[in-house]
Write a structure and sequence with these properties.
The structure is a single chain. By secondary structure, the chain is of the alpha+beta class. The protein has 2 domains: 6-338, Alpha/alpha barrel (Glycosyltransferase), CATH 1.50.10; 344-508. It is 33% helix and 22% strand. The strands form 4 sheets. The protein has an 8-stranded antiparallel β-sheet with strand order 6-7-8-9-10-13-18-17, with no helix packed on it. Helix 3 crosses helix 5. The radius of gyration is 23 Å and the shape is globular. The termini are far apart. It comes from Dictyobacter halimunensis.
Length: 509
């Protein structure tokens, strides 16, 4: 198997790889041996300055990119980066964070009562571990033997901790990488039990996927990118013919879901989003945006201008992993990635139990999304069950999304010109209902009980809830968002709170 190197790449892919590595070069801290970058910021983040910190996961991605580029000094820098990353792994059997890595060099060691996500991230086992596998498979012959042994020790620790975690197969993006790591480490270390576990776990993932050819993490612009990376690992690097076969099937199906929900003219996917860090893929780094860049060209890509600050920018560092696995897009998908094909109604079953269905209307200048959740979807800042995106008067993407609080559950549907939401409070609560609206700087607007007059769009609102206020949040880069609040104190507890949002045709607004 030939290792991926910049001179051998397709010109579009090579351009992306060179831009990503040049962008990362400026964050290299030679004294520490890590990338020193801003902390994570989502699209809704304000313009407040963010401190620079040393990132562990992004550094191993950069090390892989250095080995791929092979410019003067890259090899020595890559070795330093790999060795530094290995030094930040936890080797503490019996601890819940055993085998994972620090996220930042500045993080304190987890305490005795360490809590997942707050004090450590278990997913770094899979993200960093899978990157180390690519480094071994593509560049082992060029690495010092003691560094190879260090990587092998790190992979053993990562799998030791990952197996104790008992990761559910429904946690799609991490589960896909986990299955690959089981397969690889089982083969590498001659452990038939790990190999058989890897194949059994792959079958379990596929059994969840097969009934509707959909992942439980449905329509996730960032995590779809991780899914495609992991499936690329199955396709390109797996020793198991089972993983190769199932991975290729799921990879093609996932690309067709992307095509179904994507509007190439607006450079955005329609909602609803099970997990999303933003509402405009031109304002934050989404990993599916990088895949579309690879499949088409930079000018077609739903990705921010990398010469300026952008939200979630650390995900641009993932590019070397994409280069490693390569891209495989079905021929029938490519036209949808290059240009808008047609208006369409989408009704897509995600899971049968619970019954979850995504609804979307994809129009010439507007995208509407809603998700039926059977009133059981846990609240999350990343889950957006009712969404509107449109092209505003300034030619920029404007958007609306329901802010999904812990004290509501929701069923929503979208069709041409309308979203309907049935919302219930939890435990007899009278919840406040918020809709967040983003518009670029200088946009005119009027927000009333039954009508929102916005830049390029009018939304008529039908509800028994009471309009309370519209709060302008701290401006973000290039615009501001408003939280429109409705109160429900006059509605009988444990009854459905109804909203119908009717949009006038954008061209007529």
């Amino acid at each position: 198997m030939m290792a991926m190197q910049f001179p051998n790449l397709d010109p579009v892919v090579c351009e992306m790889a060179e831009m990503a590595l040049a962008w990362l070069d400026r964050y290299w801290d030679a004294e520490v041996g890590l990338l020193k970058m801003e902390a994570e910021q989502d699209e809704d983040s304000t313009t407040t300055p963010v401190p620079l910190v040393h990132h562990i996961r992004e550094t191993i991605w950069y090390a892989l990119g250095l080995l791929q580029r092979q410019a003067e000094g890259d090899y020595e820098r890559a070795l330093q980066a790999i060795q530094t990353v290995l030094s930040y792994q936890f080797d503490e059997p019996g601890k819940p964070y055993d085998g994972t890595w620090y996220r930042l060099s500045e993080e304190p060691h987890p305490s005795e009562d360490a809590r997942i996500w707050r004090d450590y991230d278990p997913n770094w086992r899979e993200f960093i571990g899978s990157t180390l596998v690519i480094i071994l498979l593509d560049y082992e012959a060029n690495l010092p033997p003691e560094l190879v042994m260090g990587i092998e020790r790190a992979l053993r620790r990562a799998m030791r901790g990952a197996l104790v975690r008992r990761l559910p197969a429904s946690y799609t993006n991490i589960a896909l990488m986990h299955a690959f790591l089981l397969d690889f480490t089982g083969h590498r270390f001659n452990d038939p039990d790990w190999q058989s576990r890897g194949e059994a776990y792959a079958r379990e993932i596929y059994q969840l996927f097969e009934p509707n050819h959909a992942f439980a993490e449905f329509n996730a612009p960032t995590y779809y990118g991780v899914d495609l990376y992991a499936l690329g690992l199955w396709r390109r690097y797996s020793f198991s013919s089972l993983l190769q076969r199932l991975g290729s099937d799921m990879e093609a199906s996932l690309w067709r879901d992307v095509a179904l929900m994507y509007h190439a003219g607006m450079k955005n996917m329609a909602g609803p989003f099970d997990r999303a860090y933003g509402m405009d893929m031109q304002s934050y780094a989404s990993l599916i945006g990088l895949w579309i860049w690879m499949a088409t060209a930079k000018e077609c890509a739903p990705f921010p201008d990398v010469t300026r600050p952008f939200a979630h920018q650390h995900d641009f560092a993932f590019v070397p992993c994409y280069i490693g696995v390569g891209i495989s897009v079905p021929d029938d998908v490519l036209p949808h990635l290059r240009s808008f094909q047609c208006e369409r109604q989408v009704v897509r079953t995600i899971t049968n139990r619970p019954h979850r269905v995504a609804h979307a209307w994809i129009g010439q200048h507007i995208l509407l999304g809603g998700e039926e959740t059977e009133y059981n979807k846990p609240a999350s800042g990343q889950f957006h069950p009712a969404t509107i995106q449109w092209v505003g008067e300034q030619g920029r993407i404007c958007w609306i999304r329901l802010v999904y609080h812990t004290n509501i559950v929701i069923n929503a549907r979208a069709e041409k010109n309308m979203i309907t939401c049935n919302i219930m409070g939890v435990d007899g609560d009278h919840p406040d209902i918020f809709f967040r609206i983003f518009m670029p700087d200088g946009s005119r607007h009027s927000l009333q009980q039954d009508r929102w007059q916005l830049s390029g769009l009018t939304v008529d609102v039908d509800t028994r809830a009471t309009f309370d206020c519209a709060i302008q949040a701290t401006p973000t880069s290039g615009g501001a968002y408003y939280d429109v609040r409705y109160t429900t104190g006059d509605i009988v507890p444990d009854t459905t709170i109804y909203f119908a949002l009717t949009t006038r045709d954008v061209a007529d607004s």
